[in-house]
Design goal:
Elements lengths: L3 H14 L3 H10 L4 H10 L2 H4 L3 H14 L6 E2 L1 H11 L6 H9 L8 E2 H10 L5 H14 L3 H15 L9 H11 L7 H12 L5 H13 L15 H13 L11
Antiparallel strand pairs: 1-2
InterPro entries: DCN-prot, DCN1-like_PONY, PONY_dom, UBA-like_sf
GO molecular function: cullin family protein binding; ubiquitin conjugating enzyme binding; ubiquitin-like protein binding
Keywords: Ubl conjugation pathway
Length: 255
């Protein structure tokens, strides 16, 4: 229960924001009773503890209903394609993965009512125009290495078919082309290697470590540690690339 000092802070917060005592208390507690920090957080995200108002939920529900399947309470693949078209999103590009990640979609091209409403509420968007603007800002956010890796790791699990533990090359390769593209100068050679030499499904370990490989190993691969804990596919690719691309081969270390 708030003490007399806390009650004064709550009263001060309420007088400035017109928020309820409960909302004021929640913001102040989260800010360790620092009024300035609590006010900054409130004006940045007033719905954080109070929840969305009725109009917001109604607007968002109308968007959901516009794309919901006629026979199932979910947005399925056809509805998602229409939804992405109205958002100006290419379903084969990273933006589609960003939306899926932010809305916590578990199946490609599908959104449950709960995930759609809760996801966009958290992002404070209740109209298509607001969603478009938010997606643009998220695209910038996910360009950073730290945030981009979240999308990269998410893409593997998201793209698995039920019961699968590995991605077939027919799925993994388009994903790499979408996600990596020009980020890695030897992507074309990696794909060629997979199709002509490797010819196996891609495990989660290989998927995740390929990203670590392109982030940590130089394009000429002279700093690649053949004795490191890299997956077999990457070891074999380095050997393949050195021959195919005439890359320098490091001299063997002397024991």
């Amino acid at each position: 229960m708030p003490n007399s000092s806390d009650k004064k802070l709550i009263k001060n917060f309420v007088s400035i924001t017109n928020a309820s005592n409960d909302v004021a208390t929640s913001f102040l507690k989260a800010s360790k009773w620092n009024v300035e920090a609590a006010l900054n957080e409130y004006f940045s995200n007033p719905q954080k503890f109070s929840g969305p108002d009725a109009n917001f939920v109604q607007n968002l529900t109308q968007v959901y209903e516009q794309y919901k399947d006629a026979n199932q309470d979910a947005i399925l693949i056809d509805g998602t394609l229409s939804y992405f078209e109205d958002l100006g999103i290419d379903p084969t590009q990273v933006s589609a993965l960003i939306v899926a990640l932010e809305l916590k979609s578990e199946t490609v091209g599908e959104f449950t009512r709960e995930n759609f409403i809760n996801g966009w509420t958290e992002l404070n968007c209740d109209t298509l125009e607001k969603m478009k603007a938010k997606i643009s800002s998220l695209e910038v956010k996910y360009q950073s290495s730290k945030d981009f890796k979240k999308i990269y790791v998410f893409a593997f699990k998201y793209s698995l078919s039920p019961g699968q533990r590995s991605l077939g090359l027919e799925t993994a390769i388009p994903l790499w082309e979408c996600l990596i593209g020009s980020k890695y100068p030897h992507l074309e050679s990696w794909i060629e290697f997979l199709q002509t030499e490797y010819n196996k499904a891609i495990s989660k370990d290989t998927w995740n470590q390929f990203y670590d490989f392109i982030e940590s190993v130089s394009p000429d691969m002279t700093d690649y540690d053949q004795d490191g804990a890299w997956p077999y596919a990457i070891d074999e690719f380095v050997t393949y690339a050195r021959q195919k691309l005439s890359l320098p081969t490091p001299a063997p270390s002397l024991a």
